[in-house]
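Provenance and format

Records in this collection were gathered into a single text stream. Each protein contributes a sequence line and a token line. The two records reproduced below are adjacent in the stream.
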Amino acid sequence: MVESKHPWKAWIYLAPAIVLLLIFTVWPIINTVRMAFLEGYSSMSAVGGMQYNFGFGNFKQVLQYKDFLSCLTNTMLLCVLTVPISTILALLIAVCLNAIRPLQRLLQTIFFLPYVTNSIAIGMVFAAMFNMVGSAFGSENEIVITAGIINNVIEFFGGTAVNWINAGSTYWANITVMVVYIVWNALPFKILILLGGLQSINKQYYDAAKVDGTSRRRVFTKITVPLLSPMLAYVVITGFIGGFKEYSSIVGIFGDDMGPTGDPRRLNTMVGFIYDALANKQGRASAAALILFGIIFVVTMINLYVSKKKTHY
């Protein structure tokens, strides 16, 4: 190892990044913890010189808030539904892509496109696809239903159009739309990670299995999945972390109301709950952020513990 005679030069080069990190990452974390324990903290009142007691009042307010359980339920439900589905689909697509030689690069690019597209824009497209709007026009004010492409496909195969996201739609119809959107949006990153893992597996394992006449199903379950387990563990853990922070996708489809017309906040999540409180109740928002951090930390530790026993390095 080569040691520099002037280590201070390295600190000078790193100084801008360290300063930015301290200002925009470290200090906000410290300030969030501080505000969480200042009961009833509001920045506007604090500027006026108001003093706050140190305690757990903000946490109590969060837990007693009437919509807290609903926000937590929505967040947990979206995580539990989307992470397994997206991981399994990504694994199957990655295996198929790895087996295809012609146009492999083109297909990889196509599958990766959603990852570099703005989530709000994608949400608006999904809203149009699942939309079903009634409108009045003409001399007799005739009501015409404009169905999105999803309902057009359903009706083409003899089904009945479903009210997915508009006023009067059911909770589970809304959740179905969100699951489809989140799974579709999560696939590119997971496919990229799993495909990279597949291409790094030593081909000798597959050659030996071919010589032994092992079936494809057994090769997949006994070779591919075990050797890919570190990547699977990674995408599952990051999937849960991303799922608990779900917010922009719901805003993209349902707007700021985070629910259909007539039933606002129906699909509000923990991050949405935090944003709602940021306007004038920063103490409660900070407490909710720490609670969310605690939930993510516990779930991540459980995933790490389970994956440690199931992962083959």
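Adjacent record:
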Amino acid sequence: MPDKALPSGASIAVIGAGIVGVASAYALARQGYEVVVYDPSPPGEAGPSRANAGHVGASDIHPLSTPGIHWKAMKMLMNPDGPLKIPVRGAIAQIPWFWRFWRTSQRKRFEVATSALSYLCSHTLTDTGAMLESASMTDMLLHAGCAFLYDTEQSFTASKRIWADKNARGFDNEEMDAGRIVQDIPIIADTFRYGVLSHKWSMVRDPLDVVRGLVEAAESNGVIFQRIRVNSLCGGLDSVTLETNEGKSQHAAAIVAAGVNSVTFAKSCGDFLPMAAERGYNLTVPAPGMELELPLVFADRGIVATHLTSGLRIGGWAEYAHPNRPANQNYFKSIARISAELFPGLNLDNANYWMGNRPSLPDSVPVISQSPHVPGVFYNCGHGHYGLTHAATSARILAELISNKSEDERYRQYSITRFSNMR
């Protein structure tokens, strides 16, 4: 926790204008702070906030590194259409991150990560709804649930333990038989016989529209958005100085919410942030020729689908590679082929293809904390797949930490110091 509360009216910089940074700025402005957001790109345009699936996945309480993940990963890597991709070039550089990732799958660490994610998830729907309501954007959030579909009876049976655990923690769900799947999702291929409907799940009409709407609400609360690149930051006695491409800027505090670029700022503060770029691929079809009533997760394929205002969006996967590596064009071709298989009759004309870097931490738990080395620096980053899902809750927690209005010990599980023994 901060040694002392930052007084209302103090100037705070937010580095990063994705959904997490914008939500943070909005929450801080509503607490009475003077907020300036720095990003060289328009809000929501540069990272995953631009074209993610639009899911608010409140029931995803388990880290990606599950027990036995090393065997599952090997099988996925051997499958050309598998959800895990690791380019050979640069793979050696990824070994330290994957070592930490594997350690999360160990029973005690897995439970710690699950507990941290469960706390966030238990507040996700309420906090997201409250944030959008306060911004006059209630109509952007739809409570549709989400259908998880399995290719085989074997994988469906193996998933039952996970769903039972979710039920026990208050994230209710129900099984879907073949008849229910055909009735509720008639547009998908008729090969799916096993599924689960998660009730703790929502979606937004379009994720980029959510960011833009929050920007308008934030600006009406006095937030200033600067199209300026921050190159580094350093802490002083009672302030933080940002070195930008237009000179220096001083604030009482700075929030690092810069996606995969957060690593650079953490290093400048002497903090260790083991973040990897988990790159996702998708396509959006503006006129698919079909309607999808609820979000879908094709669990064995790492593919999700959502019908947004911009069209039917299908994609997913996880490619661990350098964030500046060009998108693999073959993956776009594969996504298109798989989409046609999943949705017979899909019109792929004028499909828009996208790839983005998701900021992934080895335990799948975001960092929402103060820097142990530079007191005026705070972090709100590393949300991986779940930036939209946890943006409102992590912004609320961050605002409480900065204003020192909460002594909730559970917030310590999001501290960046948890990685100290992983160097």
